[in-house]
Structure formats: structure tokens, C-alpha cells
Write a structure and sequence with these properties.
The structure is a homodimer of 160-residue chains.
Chain A lengths: L5 H12 L6 H34 L4 H8 L3 H13 L3 E3 L5 E3 L1 H23 L4 H11 L5 H15 L2
Helix pairs in contact in A: 2-3, 2-5, 3-4, 5-6, 5-7
The structure holds a DNA duplex (30 and 30 nucleotides).
Amino acid sequence: MGRGAADKANAAEAAEAGGQLADVESQAESFRRARRARRSELVDDYVELIADLIADGGEARQVDIAARLGVAQPTVAKMLKRLTEEGLVTQRPYRGVFLTAEGQDLADRSRRRHHIVESFLLAVGVDPEHARLDTEGIEHHVSDATLAVFARFVKEAGKP
Amino acid sequence: MGRGAADKANAAEAAEAGGQLADVESQAESFRRARRARRSELVDDYVELIADLIADGGEARQVDIAARLGVAQPTVAKMLKRLTEEGLVTQRPYRGVFLTAEGQDLADRSRRRHHIVESFLLAVGVDPEHARLDTEGIEHHVSDATLAVFARFVKEAGKP
DNA sequence: GCTAGAATATAGCATATGCTATATCAAGCA
DNA sequence: TGCTTGATATAGCATATGCTATATTCTAGC
């Protein structure tokens, strides 16, 4: 046997020391979750932005999406292809992009989540600029349970 | 000129409608920030975990890191190579991994940040399990300004 | 209708992060 | 000492997300 024997000793030690380290499988699940979230957050961002652009100007063009996301136009084109394959948007060659019913649904949910997180940060005392910046990253990692707590907090803070 | 002329009209329209859409450059900066954070969050996770394993059992082995991150061992090996190149960890072939001073510093900062976020979620009423899960994703997207607000909130909540 | 300029499509490349399969090394035990 | 077994190293592949360069198409204005 190699050095594996240390494992049990370590576990016992950790338990005695107060269990700083969480359960292995549980921790692994956290990280898997975070990786999954990372994969889907781009999709959310695109769909949410497309919905905003359509609501705002009637159409969503690749150049505008690219400018707002801070990426190059071919990057957007490639992602739109993927979104089309996933049934979230529809595209006609050389035309604007539109959301399917499913895409619109996802956009609505994303927008709601985004709004709750940003409102919460503001309610808790974060300045508007940082609230806006941080929300863009945080929103994708907030579970439904946590989101509910945030929403309640905002509601309570609104009527003191 | 193509359809670019619609831009100004859209902007004006948005302004009149209440400015739902943020400034283009500002929004692009948010997304760029989020992408940057995404790149560095894995590094933070590794370094933080390595520090925990060393503190807990005296050494950080690839198999343990892999098990806790929920990835395969070669994935860890590849990442450790990168961390070594960045001067955050030291490696001797077929031996455990150790942190450089710089790595230890990053681990300390990550751990502090992690702790503040998790404490904040608990203080605001999130259940422990979701607090732990969500913290893993959120911690990397919290600016210093927001972190300070979280810390203050935890402190206030502690002594009512 | 043509044409010029803007937008989109496509090709090809780079990097990062995963994986499986397999070779190599280290350490305990017969 | 040599063998067995667990850990690490390495090769090769896949996918996702970026980029630049370039071809194609649309639209507006003449």
C-alpha cells in the first residue's frame, strides 16, 4: 500500500479538530454544481440580453449583442448557433435573432433572478455601481432557496 | 449604411422609456469582469483546497484534491502544473503539493472571503446546506466593496 | 438597378478545462 | 530482495469559448 493509509487518520484528526473540512462527496457536489452553473451562465446571459434588446429596440443584432457582452461578433454567431440548436432562439440568415417560447421563458426567469439579486444587494447597503457589477456574476450561483431569502429580505426592507 | 442607424434611435427610446438598458461600455465591462472572475476562480478553489488539506492532514495529494473537487486525477495534475508555473505551489515528482508564500497568501485571502460570504448568507437566513453550496459559486464574484458590506452585516447581526 | 458600406457567415487558430487509457514510480510486505 | 498496489505522470482526445481574417449578403442611397 502507498500513502493511502493516512486517509483514515486524517479524517479522524479532522473530526477531532472540529471538522473544518466538509464531507468529501458533499464538497465534490458543490464544485460540480459550480462548474455546471458556469456552463449555463453564458446561455442565461445571452438569452437575457437578447430579450432586453428586443424589448428595447424591437430586434437583437449580433453586433449589439457583441458590443454589450464585450466580445467579437463571430463569438456571438457561434453561441447563437448553439442556442438555436438548444431551441432557445430562432435565426434566419443575415437577419436578427428572436427568442422561442422556451427562450422567452428562460429570459423571464433570468431577469427576475437578476432583479432580485440586484435589489437585495442594494437593500443590504451595497452601492449601486458595485451592486450592478457583482449581480452579473452572482446571479447564476444563487439557489432557489437563497433567492427566496433574498426576495423576502427586499420585501421586508421595503416597508419598515 | 446598413441597419446601424437604428442605434441612436434605440438609445433615445431607451432613455425615454426609463433607461432599462445600461450603458453599453459599462455593461460590457461587467461581463468582461465576470469572464475574468471565471478564469481565476478555479485557481482560487485549488489553492484554498490545498491549504485546507495541508492544514488538515499535513499534505495535499492529487487523489484527495481530485476527490474533493469531483474531477479526475489527470485534471488535477494538469492544473497543478499551471499553478506551479504561476508560482503558487511547489511540486516534487511523485510527491505531495505545497504552497509557496504567495500561494499561502492567496489561500488566506480566499478562505477569509469564503468565510465572510458563508457567514453572511447564514446571518441573512439561508439554511446551512444552501449557504455552503451557494458560497462555493458566489465568493468569486463578490467585489471588495460588497464583501465589506457583508462583513459589516455579519458583525451587526452578531450583537443585537 | 447598382454600388458602397455595414452586418452576418465561415474558416482556422489558440487556450482552458475536462476525460480515458496507460506508463512510470514509490513503499510496504512476503 | 522482489512483488503488489496505490499514486503520479503523460499521451491523446473532446468540448467550450475566445480571437482574427475573410467571404458573403443585405440595405440604403444614388
